[in-house]
Design goal:
homodimer, nine-stranded mixed sheet, alpha+beta, 265 residues, DNA-binding
DNA sequence: ACAAAAGTGTTCTATGTACACCCATGT
DNA sequence: ACATGGGTGTACATAGAACACTTTTGT
């Protein structure tokens, strides 16, 4: 839990800021024929993680109602409205359509573009990871999708299996190359959890949480038990001491000793 | 919902060999109209790093001979031949065209797709980072580019400046959003260098190198001096002890005490 | 009184960093 | 002999993991 945070300063581009520097350039832009290059479709696909009531890491999968891969399970996604929105905006829009939530933590994962990954036509998919507290999810079915459900993830050397009360899905039941996308998302999440603030985005309430709650999120992601005293020590050193988290003048009552509440800034 | 389960388990689909499972699906694929979605152009852009003779981190920039951003400097790139090649293959192809080298370390960096980043038409750019020993570079000009040159990078809180014997380029002289791409590439490289094997790809000869040579690469990337005894200790522990690097029965003669040679596997 | 969960403290080991010093070569 | 770069050893601070123990609540 040390903080090697890598922050990128990125400037934002928009249409209005580009100024033609000459008449020659204006002419060029008018004559430019966009159709002369082969254009693949571009989609955004989103790996949505959440924690269930038993603090297991869950993922949202959609049963495809249409071809290709009809009946297979996929992560939600959709076409980017090129030129109208940024990639992240496209991901946020899809997320909103699928789960009815806004203001979600979204992080670009990787871009997949192997030929033949979609049997219809060349499709390049920009994959995003979303971390969402379950309370905020309001799952809906998409346009050409039947059925959206949350599944508990089991991922070890044997492979991935997704289960819930009624269904068991193996990684071979996933559409397209979504197996690779999900595997990469889990791996990245596990690697990032120790030095990035990702875990806070899975808290029910960032403004009032206990150290135990945060520990359970870490345990779910890393899929192993964590020693609470050591976790507390690192938490206080890395977050409270630096001011990224402040201790509230409030406790959470329940079984056992009341727990201090903290607020993530 | 249990009735669905049986059909999932029988699948053996993968990317490369998609087999239509039914006549219904065949029909669907034939009728599918790819043109109904707005398709952005997709390019790959490559941040090429190398070390110069004085062990400074260098980057390859191209002076744009055509509009847009004529006269501005850009990183090399080009359109993806959708459906014919993977994104990494496209990057490798562009790299080969530009610098005449193959078998280069290439790593996907990030995908940029803000509206208006290219004034002509919506363009989504998948950025790659390449690490190349200078000896292998054979720099050429591209199709609509004038001039390709290596520049020493200076990057601190003040911003980025690129210099060589004849030119000084500020980050404002860069085309498109290449400023953001390059900044991200440098930041990522710096963050990765401590726990990934990236540095070895900048060695003149991976099969015969000294600890000092490797240290100089790390210094160039991190832009600070490293204590040699400590670097050696970590190198022996992390690479030699684990077998990722083997000590050769050979020394490099020169000024001072001869240096042991190592081989990266 | 007891269970349950929060919270404190100790110990051991590994790592990062600073730095003093010795070693083998060319000139 | 001395400059030059390679290589060894010591010392201290901090981080991570294991674990014994205490505190405060509800029942």
């Amino acid at each position: 839990m040390n903080n090697k945070k890598a922050s990128y300063t990125s400037s934002t581009y928009n249409n209005s800021s580009y100024i033609c520097s000459s008449e020659e350039e204006k002419e060029f832009l008018e004559k430019y024929d966009a159709s002369k290059y082969t254009r693949p479709s571009v989609t955004v696909d989103i790996v949505i993680f959440t924690l269930d009531e038993e603090d297991n890491l869950n993922i949202l999968l959609i049963n495809r109602g249409g071809y290709p891969y009809k009946g297979f399970w996929a992560i939600p996604g959709g076409f980017v409205e090129a030129g109208k929105e940024s990639l992240e905006q496209a991901a946020a829009r899809e997320l909103k359509e699928e789960t009815n939530i806004s203001n979600v933590y979204l992080k670009q994962l990787y871009t997949f573009g192997n030929p033949g990954r979609d049997p219809r036509t060349p499709v390049i998919s920009v994959a995003y990871t979303a971390l969402v507290p379950k309370e905020m999810l309001d799952i809906k079915a998409g346009d050409d999708a039947d059925d959206a459900q949350l599944f508990k993830i089991k991922y070890d050397i044997e492979g991935m299996i997704f289960t819930n009360e009624s269904l068991t899905i193996t990684e071979d039941n996933l559409a397209f190359d979504h197996r690779d996308i999900i595997k990469m998302a889990i791996t990245r999440l596990r690697n990032r959890i120790d030095y990035e603030d990702d875990a806070f985005n899975l808290l029910k309430n960032k403004n009032e949480f206990t150290i135990s709650e945060l520990k359970k999120i870490h345990e779910a992601i890393k899929n192993k038990n964590i020693d609470l005293p050591n976790f507390r020590k690192a938490f206080l050193r890395d977050y409270v001491e630096s001011g990224k988290v402040i201790e509230l003048d409030k406790n959470l009552e329940g079984k056992g000793k009341p727990a201090k509440l903290y607020k993530y800034i």
